[in-house]
C-alpha cells in the first residue's frame, strides 16, 4: 500500500507539467487571467488548438504551426529510416565482415556519440554550402543522418555481436553473398533492435531544435523552431493557451511513438542479453 | 563425392602458428576424422577446408581441383556446425532449401529435394516448424538435412554431436554411420571425442599443437600408436604408462616391475630387434592398455609373452561388463580390466595376467615409439 502511495506521488509529480499544459491549452484567456495555474477550466475550449495549428503568428507569417508539423515529418521520416538502415549495415559489417582495423574504426565511430551538437555546427554549415544543400530539407536530413549514424551503428553493432557468426558461415557455404545474407538471414532477426533504433532516432530528430534552427530555411523549418518562434512572437498579449496547445502539438508524435512501441523499446534494449 | 588432398597447409595468426604443415589425403567415399584436444588446430583445419579461413601456405584439392583460393560457395561443400546454425527466421523447409534457392534450382526440384532429405532423416512432420520449436536432436537432424540437400563433393561435420545429451549422442552417432554407409559420401568430421573417432572413421588424423601426430585407420591408431600422445589420447580408460628398466635375459627382451609388496616380476616382450640393444639397462616407458592386464585366463597363459603376477588391489571400479582394478607397479598406478566374477575387494591380493604381445615402448625423453 505504501509502495503504491509513493508510486502515485511520483506519477503525479511527473505528470503535473503535462496536466497544467493540457488544462491551460483548453482554457480561454479570460479564464487563465481569472484562475490559477492548476485551476479547472470553466469551459473546455479547442479554440487555442485551432489557432495554434492554423493562425498563430510564428514570426512575420501568421499561419499556425500546421505546415511546420508536416515539415518535421518530412525531415524525421527519411532521416530516421536512412540512419537506422545505415546503422544496421554498419553493425553487420563491423561484426560479421570484420576487416583489418575494424575495431579501431568502430571505436572512432563511437566518438560521434560524444560530440556535442554545437561542435559540428560550423563545419557542417560549410559542408552543406559546398554540397549546395544549405537551407534545404535534404541538407537537414543529411545532418541528422550523419549525426545519428554513430548511435545507430552502436546499437546494431552491439546487437549483432550476440548473433552467432556461424549463421553467416553457414549461409556463405550455402552460396549466399554479402547482401543476400544481410537481407535473408540478418535483417529478419533484427526487429527488436530496429524498434529501439527507430524510437531513439525519431525522438532525437523530432525534438531537435539546434540543427533545425541553424540549417533550415524559413519554409522548411521543423516544428520545434516554429514553436520557439510562436512563443517569442508577441502581439501585445501573451496567449498562454495557444503556446501550450502548440507545445502539445509539437510533443504529440513522440508521445504516440512511445505509447505504441514503448514495450518493444524496453524489450529491445534487453534483447541479446539472453539467447532468443 | 570426391577425394580430398591437403598438402603442407600452414596457418599463422600473426606470429602464432596454428597449423604447422598439414598433409592428409583421403579417397572418394572415405570418412576422415580429425581428433585432438581443444586448441590443436582441428577446427581451423576444418574451416580452411571449407574456405571460411584462408591458409597461409599450402594447397587444398577437392576432387582434383585446387580450391585453395576459392570462396566457400565455389568449393562445392556442405557443412554441419556445432551450434547447428539454423536460420532462425526460416522454417525447416526454408532452411533445407535455402542453398538450392540461392543456386537458382527450380521450385519443383527444390520441393522434391526437400522431400527426399526429410524422408531420409525422418523429419517430414517438422518441415513447417521454426528451429526454435524443435528439440536438440531434431535441430541436429535439420542441420544434417541442410547439408544433404545438395549433392556436394564433400561433407564437413564440425563437432555435430557435442551439444546433445549422452544417450542421443550415441543414437545419432549410429545414424551418421548408417547414413555414410548408405550414401558413400566423402566426409570430414571434427571431434574431440575419441570414441566417436574410433566408431565412425575410416581414417583418423590425431592432431596436437597444429601437427598431425598420426594418420591411419582406427585400429592402427589404437594398436600401433606413433607416440605417447596418441597412445594416451585414444582409448578409455587410457593406456597405462609405466616407467621401467629394459632388460635382456637369454636373448629375449623384457621389463621388470615391482609390486607394492616388493615382489619383482619379469614381463617378457614378444620381439625386439637390435635397435633396442642400446636401451638395455636404461629407463623406458611401457605402454599397456588396461584390457591387456586381466585376471588369469587359463587357456591364454600358455601363450609366449604372457606373464603372471600377484598384486594388491587398491581400488575396484565396476562398470557392469567388467571391473576396472587399480594396482600399483613400480610405484605407479596401473589400470587393469578384469571380469566382475574374478574381482577381489580393495586391499586383498589378486593374481593378474599380462598379455605383452600388444605392449609398446616409448622413449621417455622424446615420447616417440621404440617398439
Automatic annotation (TrEMBL), chain A:
Keyword Oxidoreductase: no
Pfam families, per database record: BPD_transp_1
Keyword terms, alphabetized: Membrane, Transmembrane, Transmembrane helix, Transport
Localization: Cell membrane
Membrane topology: Multi-pass membrane protein
A GO CC term assigned to this protein in UniProt: plasma membrane
PROSITE patterns per the UniProt record, alphabetical: ABC_TM1
Segments passing through the bilayer: 75-93, 105-125, 137-160, 181-202, 244-266
GO annotation terms (biological process): transmembrane transport
Span of the signal peptide: none
Domain ABC transmembrane type-1: 69-261
Family from the record: Belongs to the binding-protein-dependent transport system permease family.
Protein name: Carbohydrate ABC transporter membrane protein 2, CUT1 family
Originating organism: Amphritea atlantica
Automatic annotation (TrEMBL), chain B:
GO molecular function, one term: ATP binding
Biological processes, Gene Ontology terms: carbohydrate transport
Boundaries of every ABC transporter domain copy: 4-234
Coiled coil: none
Any one GO cellular component localisation term in the record: ATP-binding cassette (ABC) transporter complex, substrate-binding subunit-containing
UniProt keyword terms in alphabetical order: ATP-binding, Nucleotide-binding, Transport
Gene3D superfamilies per the UniProt record, alphabetical: 2.40.50.100, Nucleic acid-binding proteins, P-loop containing nucleotide triphosphate hydrolases
Name of the featured protein: Carbohydrate ABC transporter ATP-binding protein, CUT1 family
Organism: Amphritea atlantica
